[in-house]
Amino acid sequence: MAVQQRTQAQSLRRLERAVESCRRCPRLVEWREQVAREKRAAFRHEEYWGRPLPGFGDPAARVYILGLAPAAHGGNRTGRVFTGDRSADWLFASLHRTGFANQPTSVRRDDGLRLDGAWVTAAVRCAPPANKPLPAERDNCLPFAAQELELMPNVRVVVCLGGFAWDAGLRLLHPGVRPRPRFGHLAQHELPDSRLLLGSYHPSQQNTFTGKLTEQMLDAVFHRARDAAGW
Predict the structure, then answer these.
(1) pLDDT at residue 6, as a whole number
(2) What are the b/e assignments for 88-126, b being 16+ CB within 10 Å?
(3) 3-state secondary structure 88-155
(4) Of 31, 99, 108, 205, which one's alpha carbon is 20 to 30 angstroms from that of 73?
(5) pLDDT of residue 3
(6) Model confidence at 183: pLDDT above 90
(7) pLDDT for the residue 96
């Protein structure tokens, strides 16, 4: 088992390096690097990451959490997915309440955050202009998620944060399915390999400020994921 874990860890590190060095999408490369140079005034003294973001979490995860893309001044600044912005505040507070995270905040790469049973990533690994990746950019990135899932055979539930991630999850894990499963909060779709695709509204300010997504609603998703994964 120890040898297998070392091999998995080495493979995940190689994948991490491949993600971080990716330059497949010229539009995204230009934008992420421009943001990293110009910065937001509130973070002008910080060094921005300005590169693609690998996944983060427990290599033995049974729950795989798929978001949309890094935020320009969140993950693109801090160097860790879902870190340093309001969406991160909501996501990790919920993961802490539901037993997947050792602390309720994710503010920087060295903040001591650890995940137990969960892995967090995004369908697109670079911050996109206006937070809207193009379909071709999504398709360029999905092979990274496919490789992560191959290296994490314990995953039983894929939680999709938002409709974009739901569509990406279907393309990745059940391409061509008909009728196409509809996205919704707590929507479920059993995949051909008996894993479960589980939908959640994205913890964006657009959803949390308006009350479309509440803390209780987000917690319900992760309680459901925990039960379905047998974690």
Answers:
(1) 86
(2) bbbbbbbbbbbebbeeebbbeeeeebebebbbbbbbbbb
(3) HHHHHHHHHHCCCECCCCCCCCCCCCCECCEEEEECCCCCCHHHCCCHHHHHHHHHHHHHHHHHCCCC
(4) 99
(5) 81
(6) yes
(7) 98
pLDDT of residue 1: 67
Enter the tokens of residue 133: 């990746």
Residue 185 to residue 213: CA distance in whole angstroms:
9
- Phi, psi angles (nearest 5°) of residue 63: -120, 125
Q: Are 56 and 67 within 8 A, CB to CB?
A: no
Instruction: Please list the residues that pair with 115 across neighbouring strands.
Output: 101
Q: Which 3 state secondary structure label does DSSP give 188? A: strand
- Judged against a pLDDT cut of 70, whether residue 42 lies above it is answered with yes
Handedness of CA 158, 111, 75, 80 (dihedral sign): negative
Domain ranges of the chain: 2-229
Predicted local distance difference test score (pLDDT) of residue 60: 96
Please determine, for residue 169, whether its predicted confidence score (pLDDT) is greater than 80: yes
What are 24's two structure tokens?
Answer: 């497949």
The CATH number of the structural domain formed by 2-229 is: 3.40.470.10
Tokens of 195: 């894993």
Give all strands of the β-sheet with 118-122 in edge-to-edge order: 56-57, 118-122, 63-67, 157-161, 196-200, 188-190
